[in-house]
Design a protein that fits this description.
Chain A: It comes from Mesobacillus campisalis. Chain A: GO terms for molecular function: DNA binding; sigma factor activity. Chain A: One of its GO terms (biological process) is response to stress. The complex is a heterodimer of chains A (about 190) and B (about 80). By secondary structure, chain A is mainly alpha-helical. In chain A, about 70% of the residues lie in helices and about 0% in strands. Chain A is built from ten helices and no strands. In chain A, α3 packs across α4, α8 packs across α10 and α9 packs across α10. By secondary structure, chain B is mainly α. Chain B is built from five helices and no strands. Classes of the chains: A mainly alpha (about 190), B mainly alpha (about 80). The interface between A and B is large, with 46 and 35 residues.
Chain lengths: ~190, ~80
């Protein structure tokens, strides 16, 4: 896979923009999933995942082709997710009226955004519980837990993606698991 | 729990698949005799299984087209100038 990616990157560097589409195709599901599990919202996940690919494209000349492209794009996406989580503040209230809608509030907005077909097949309730519990984790624990148990990456890859020593990744993993354990006692 | 902290450390090392064989033996022996630690370990494994039970999600259909449409056009100019 890395060979294909590197040859596409060389084409992109020569000015062939379309070659980038193939790179996006290869990684879009992984990156979208990461963003979705980090942010808990499809719209935001799509925004941030697209932003990650756009940034990677803009900075493609600075990518070191001796390294794994997947780690690089994961890093860009992870940093964007963390920025988004940090900036996110409860700047609206669910029961506040939406301007110009004559009585509609945010609850009615949410209702229209419910399940998608592929998820209906799963136990929706369990899926929502998992997502909610992941979202409760502080962002630095959430990141390692999602990368390890949802993206199924090794601790070494996670250490490379986050640019953190392996020992720090392990400590966060331990604390993240302990935090989840505490939360799940009540589920 | 009055057990030494090292047992919880060992549990995490085990879950990271990075535990020294002698520590694993010590942990296993301890879990046989300590109800509290056994429960702790089970809860940790449950937490992991819980996160792993999430369904895999896929990017929306139009995702790649959306990225491609949003890319800056400058590279095409570079090509023209060549």
């Amino acid at each position: 896979m890395e060979t294909i990616v590197n040859s596409r990157i060389s084409q992109v560097l020569k000015g062939d923009q379309n070659a980038y589409g193939e790179i996006v195709e290869l990684y879009k599901d992984k990156i979208f999933q990461l963003c979705y599990r980090m942010l808990g919202n499809r719209h935001e996940a799509e925004d941030i995942a697209q932003e990650a690919f756009i940034r990677a494209y803009i900075n493609i000349h600075s990518f070191n082709q001796n390294k794994k492209f997947s780690s690089w794009i994961y890093r860009i996406a992870t940093n964007l997710c963390i920025d988004r989580i940090r900036k996110k503040k409860p700047d609206y209230f669910l029961d506040a009226e939406v301007p110009g809608t004559d009585g509609l509030n945010m609850y009615s907005q949410i209702a229209s955004e419910t399940s998608l077909p592929e998820e209906e097949l799963e136990s929706l309730e369990l899926q929502e519980t998992v997502q909610k519990e992941i979202a409760k984790l502080p962002e630095k624990y959430r990141t390692v837990i999602v990368l390890k148990y949802i993206e199924e990456l090794s601790l070494n890859e996670i250490s490379e993606i986050l640019d953190l020593p392996l020992g720090t990744v392990k400590t966060r993993m331990h604390r993240g698991r302990e935090a989840l354990r505490q939360q799940l006692r009540n589920v | 729990m009055s057990c030494p902290d090292k047992f919880v450390e060992y549990m995490h090392d085990f879950l990271d698949e990075d535990i020294a064989p002698e520590n694993e033996r010590e942990l296993r022996a301890h879990l046989q005799t300590c109800q509290a630690c056994e429960t702790h370990f089970k809860e940790l494994k449950k937490a992991v299984a819980f996160v792993q039970s999430t369904a895999h999600v896929k990017a929306p259909d139009h995702f790649t087209a959306g990225v491609m449409a949003a890319l800056p056009k400058e590279r095409k100019k570079v090509e023209v100038n060549r």
